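Summary for the lay section of the report: proteins are chains of building blocks that fold into shapes. Here we show the chain for ATP-grasp domain-containing protein and then a coded description of the shape we predicted for it.
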Amino acid sequence: MKAHNLSPLIGIMTSQKADGTIAGNGPLFTELQKKLISLNGISFVFIPEDAAEKYIIGYTYSPEDNRWLKKRFPYPDLVYNRIPFRKSEQNEQSQNFFSILKERNIPFFNPCFIDKYELYQLLKNHDLLKQYLPQTILVNHKKGLFSFLNKYKEIYLKPRQSSKGKGIFRLRMTDFSRIALEGINKQESYKSFHHFWDHWNKMLLEKNYLAQEEIKSAEYEGDRFDFRILAHANHEDYVLTGVGIRQSHEQAVTTHIPAGGRLLPYKLLQSDEHDQFFQTIVPHVGKALSDQFGYFGEFSIDAGVSKTGQYYLYEVNSKPMSFDETEIEEGKIEQLCHLFMQLAGFRNDQNSI
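The coded shape description reads as follows.
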């Protein structure tokens, strides 16, 4: 432990937008810097392209000036990966920088975005978590998707690499084998699966879609809801940071708020059974992710409960979006800064979190 030096330096890695400006969650970066300053630490935001052999050009937020200052920094004690785009994370500069961190023994998290089908394959082999998974297949040929739809009648189609509900469709086989497709802003009908496949197969195959059985979700006041669970690492374990409720409202395909979903306070629907489910899955999901992909310091889970009381784990997100619940966002800042201090090898007895 670096008790002799109570000034950890935390690097927050992000990427550039197409116009050359810095991408990422600015409000999160600002709040992290404010909290770290109270712990005698400092953070800076940077992109991999601005890393030289002996220093990194980055930006640090100054609360006194209420603005970001461009400076030259030594390599940090820890790197927090917040690259917001899959393509940017997979490019040569980012991958080279990850290699440099490993060579210099600089800890970092989180290592990567999560492919939905790779996640399913990982969790379906987990003794405890497999019971919570909806049946899922990769869409790679006509016959396989037809058999899956014919079995479940109502399914979801999801891109393997997407977030925020983008590209999700609900597919239903209706009477007389007609096919109904519903998206966030789309409703179409086809007289047969053959006609549907002719229209959609190119996109489904090119964008690597998977198919997932539709779960008849529990409802509140007539609309279905699900859980958004935020978790963080704490020493060798994973802890629950907060839970939010998202409810479908303007459309029934997804509960995501940007797509017309609605926020409900968790206390409205809280139960001992829900709490036990969250506490059960969080440590197992965190350990499974870290064992398979590299160290995860945080993640969020999309989960739900059916009308019959069966719990389901739908997705895990490695770069959690902001929660609209203020108390969850505050908990995120606390947990992240606590984790920064742990992983960077510092302790701060006088300013404990």
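Put simply, here is one thing we learned. Residues 243 and 275 are 9 Å apart (CA to CA).
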